[in-house]
Amino acid sequence: xxxxxxxxxxxxxxAMLAIGRAARAASRELALASPESKRAALxxxxxHLRQDGSAILKANAAxxxxxxxxxxxxxxxxxxxxxxxxxxxxxxxxxxxxxxxDPIGTRLSAWTRPNGLNIARxxxxxxxxxxxxxxxxxxxxxxxGLAVKAGNAAILRSGSDAFRSAGAIHACLVAGLKAxxxxxxxxxxxxxxxxxxxxxxxxxxDGTVDxxxxxxxxxxxxxxxxxxxxxxxxxxxxxxxxYVDKAADLDMAKQIVVNAKMRRTGICGATECLLVDKAAPKxxxxxxxxxxxxxxxxxxxDEAARxxxxxxxxxxxxxxxxxxxxxxxxxxxxxxxxxxxxHITRFGSQHTDAIVTNDEDAAARFLxxxxxAIVLHNASTQFADGGEFGFGGEIxxxxxxxxxxxxxxxxxxxxxxYVVRGTGQVRPG
Length: 429
Fold this sequence. Notes:
Blueprint: H1 5-31, H2 35-51, H3 53-69, H4 74-80, H5 84-99, E1 107-112, E2 118-125, E3 128-133, H6 138-149, E4 153-158, H7 163-179, E5 187-189, H8 196-202, E6 211-215, H9 218-227, E7 240-244, H10 250-262, E8 271-277, H11 282-294, E9 298-301, H12 303-308, E10 313-314, E11 328-334, H13 336-347, E12 352-356, H14 360-369, E13 374-377, E14 397-398, E15 406-407, E16 414-421
Parallel strand pairs: 3-4, 3-6, 4-5, 7-8, 7-12, 8-11, 9-10, 9-11, 12-13
Antiparallel strand pairs: 1-2, 2-16, 14-15
C-alpha cells in the first residue's frame, strides 16, 4: 500500500530539514577550517574527477540520450554534454580555486575611534548556500568548490535533465572532502528530482539556508525570486549586446561579433543583439552581417541590415530584448553611442554589454552609462565568466545590485563582521 500524499509530503519535508541541519553543522566546521585543508580538499576533488572520468561520461551519456529523446534543442544539449576536455576543465577549475588566496579572516579595513576603540571589518563565510541549476552538470563542481573555498556548506539541486551527471560529479567532490578530513556533508546533492524539494529549499529549511543562487532559465529564476524566503543572487536573462561604433576597427569588430555570438550560443554571455552605428561606413553593416551568416547564424534585422544583405530576415518587434540561446541574432542600426545606450537601457537585462571602438571618449561614455553587471570595451561578451575574471569559476552571474554583482565567485560568497577591540571603554549615559 502506497503512502498517502500528505505522508509523502511530510517525509520530504523531514528529509530536506535533515539536509539543512547537516549543512549548517558542516558550515560551522568549514568556517574554522584551515586554508591548507580546504586547498587539499579541492585538489583531491580535481584528482577524483580525472580518475572517475569514465563513470562521469557514462552517466552523462544517459542524460544526453534522454534529453535527445525528449526533443530538447541544440543549445540545451550543448550545455548538458560533457567530454573528456570539459571534465578536465572542471578539474582545472577546482585547482585554480584551490590556489586562490583564502578570503576568510581577511581584514578589509580598520580604523581607530577618538575614544580608542579599534574597529576592523573582517571577511567571514555566508554560511549555507543553496544552488539550484538546470542542465549544467559543470555547475556541480564549480558551485561545490567555490562554496568550500569560501568556508560555506553547499546544498545542490540539479535539474532532472542532468541528475545522473551531477550525481557522478558530486561523488568526486565528497571523496575530496573525505580525503582532506572535512565533513562530507559540506557539499550535499538533493537526492531527488521531485520539484517539491525545491519549494522546501526556498523556504530556508528552518533557518539553515542563508542564500539561494539559481542558475537556469527565466522560469526557474522567476520562481526562485517569487518563492524564496531567503536572499537570492540571480539574473533572469542574458540579453547581451555588442555595439559597433563608427570608429571601430572593422577586422576587430568582425572577430569580436562572430565570437560573441557563435563561440557558444547557449551560454548567458552570448551576444543576442548587434547594434551598428548609423554613421559607420556603409561596408561595416554588410561585413558584420555576412560574417555572421557565413558562420551559420540566422540574422534578423531592421531595414538597414536587410539593405546590407538580402539574406537577412526581417526582425519582429519582440526579437529585440529576446534571449535566443541559439544561432540567431537580432541586428539594428542606432544613432551613435547614445542610441546604443538608449537601446540597451530599454531592451537589455543588465547582464553583459560591449562596445567596439577606437574612440576612447565614446568607450568611456558607454562604459559609464550602460548599467550592466559587466561592460566591455573591444572584447567579446563571451568573457562574462568567472574563470575568465580570475575567480577560478563561478556559480552564476548576478545582475542585482545588492552584495554580489557580476560573476559570483569566492569573494562574493562571503560576508563580513566587525571586530571591535577596546581597553575598558564604556559608553557615556
